[in-house]
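Look at a sample.

——
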Amino acid sequence: MAAEGTLTPGEYIRHHLVHLTNRKQESIVDFSIINIDSVVTSALLGLLTVFVLWLAARGATAGVPGRFQAAVEMLVEMVDSQAKAVIHNAKSRKLIAPLALTVFVWIFMMNFMDMIPVDLIPQIWHSAGPAMGYPDYLRVVPTADLSTTLGLSVSVLLLCLFYNIKIKGLGGWAHELVCAPFGTSKNPVFALLLGVVNFLMQMIEFVAKTVSHGMRLFGNMFAGELVFMLIALLGAYATLSLGGGLFFVGHLIAGTVWTLFHILIITLQAFIFMMLTLIYLGQAHDAH
């Protein structure tokens, strides 16, 4: 670690950007690679999210709520009001509103892992992982992993496809794919041409929404992780340089300011992902 004086700043950052995987990557695009750290961390945080929401539901009372119940109730009411504004089908909201709540809390929990000191958990793994035969790599922010965020956005895409078929019927949705957004024509040749163009535009829209949905969350969290690494390097240089006092002061100031600002970022990114999920599912309910 840089703090130990064994890695240069570049090597330190590269080390922290490598995932714990099931095997060595042999090509740039290899779908058989599994980022074990992201999968395990996100799964554990998902279970924790469900447990916390279950505790709130189990301990809910009709009287004066405690602080925990009041906080959860405020969160539930916020998500429910957003769902009602976008999803006009009451039956669909019975599934989509709790889903949106879970998405918000789960993504916030995954984002919050960025608030833990950069070297804390990796340093623990540095002592235990290689001893068990695992590589000395570990990343603990699942949303800074593109495979995680794209996995979430693809899941939203699958739900959109499901509701398109459920609400409009297979025939109705197929008709929409070839008739929107440019309409159709009574002329068979123009109708065929417009149908192809409409279909291509619909496919481009689905792909663009899915990719941007995942990339937005990934980009913000990846950038935040890099900033914390750079701040950690300031702390490392505080112990390695003669002017370490200045580096230490800079480390404290930069770390405090960025941490306070990052609390807003991780909350906002979870909210944006949840809102886009509601909007995309709402669009699946609406006819063009």
User: Anything to note?
Assistant: Residues 188-240 form the longest helix (53 residues). Residues 1-5 have pLDDT under 50 and may be disordered.
